[in-house]
């Protein structure tokens, strides 16, 4: 694979008991760490411009996996802890341990078990244990909501098994014209503030995430 938003494998050694893989450097932590513990880890906060670019880069990498190969590759398990950032905040997908190719002539794959965070697994998989490109898109929508709110899914899901808890949280506030109450405080308080242009971007971002 050769894509700027997929962590590049430089080399590997399969002669050891545990295989060793060498990847390009992306030492600026995961998206999860930047979104929730930036000060503790001495990272700069993710501004709205960073979040928009990260969303675009992850979308581009998924499109590459879905259409670049004769057999579409399903990433299967997009979540903030599976996205690394480099020193320029460029997003890098990594950990393809759950990825699968769709067999020739098929439109989906059967998966007995898919490890993922609550709220990131698509209903299609939960109901029928099948996975396709739409499931990756659903995962991506959950990632957009996280970028918008700064909320961890499992923080909202404590005491419940509701897989759509984050989208429900956003819909509830949006329907009551309270969307900006749940936008991440870093977004509201960054250099741009809540100017009309940014307000429209946030609304559009929310609509895209909930499709």
Kindly list the characteristics that best describe this protein.
alpha+beta, 8 strands
Strand segment count: 8
Helix content: 40-55%
| Assembly status | single chain
Structural class: alpha+beta
End-to-end separation: 29 Å
Q: Gyration radius, to the nearest Å?
A: 18 Å
- Largest sheet properties: 2 strands, antiparallel
Runs with pLDDT <50, length 5+?
none
Give the overall shape.
Answer: globular
Order of helices and strands: EEHHEEEEEHEHHHHHH
Placed side by side, the strands forming the largest sheet appear as 1-2
GO biological process, one term: cell surface receptor signaling pathway
GO molecular function: ATP binding; protein serine/threonine kinase activity
Keywords: ATP-binding, Nucleotide-binding
GO cellular component, one term: plasma membrane
Structural overview:
The chain has 9 helices and 8 strands. By secondary structure, the chain is of the alpha+beta class. The strands form 4 sheets. Strands 1-2 form a two-stranded antiparallel ribbon. Strands 3-6 form a two-stranded antiparallel sheet. Strands 4-5 form a two-stranded antiparallel ribbon. α2 packs antiparallel against α4 and α4 packs antiparallel against α9. The two termini are about 30 Å apart. The relative contact order is 0.13. The model has no long low-confidence stretch (mean pLDDT about 85). InterPro entries: Kinase-like_dom_sf, Prot_kinase_dom, WAK-like. It holds the Pfam family Pkinase. Keywords: ATP-binding, Nucleotide-binding. This is Protein kinase domain-containing protein.
């Amino acid at each position: 694979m050769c894509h700027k938003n997929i962590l590049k494998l430089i080399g590997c050694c399969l002669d050891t008991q545990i295989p060793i893989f060498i990847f390009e450097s992306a030492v600026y932590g995961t998206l999860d760490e930047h979104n929730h513990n930036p000060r503790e880890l001495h990272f700069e906060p993710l501004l709205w411009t960073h979040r928009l670019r990260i969303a675009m880069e992850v979308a581009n990498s998924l499109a590459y996996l879905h259409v670049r190969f004769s057999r579409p590759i399903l990433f299967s398990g997009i979540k903030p802890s599976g996205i690394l950032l480099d020193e320029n905040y460029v997003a890098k997908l990594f950990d393809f341990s759950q990825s699968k190719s769709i067999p020739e002539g098929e439109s989906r794959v059967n998966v007995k078990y898919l490890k993922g965070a609550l709220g990131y697994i698509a209903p299609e998989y939960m109901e029928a244990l099948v996975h396709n490109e739409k499931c990756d898109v659903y995962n991506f929508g959950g990632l957009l909501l996280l970028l918008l709110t700064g909320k961890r899914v499992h923080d909202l899901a404590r005491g419940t098994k509701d897989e759509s808890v984050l989208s429900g949280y956003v819909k509830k506030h949006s329907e009551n014209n309270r969307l900006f109450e749940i936008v991440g405080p870093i977004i509201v308080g960054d250099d741009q503030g809540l100017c009309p242009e940014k307000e429209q971007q946030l609304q559009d971002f929310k609509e895209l995430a909930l499709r």
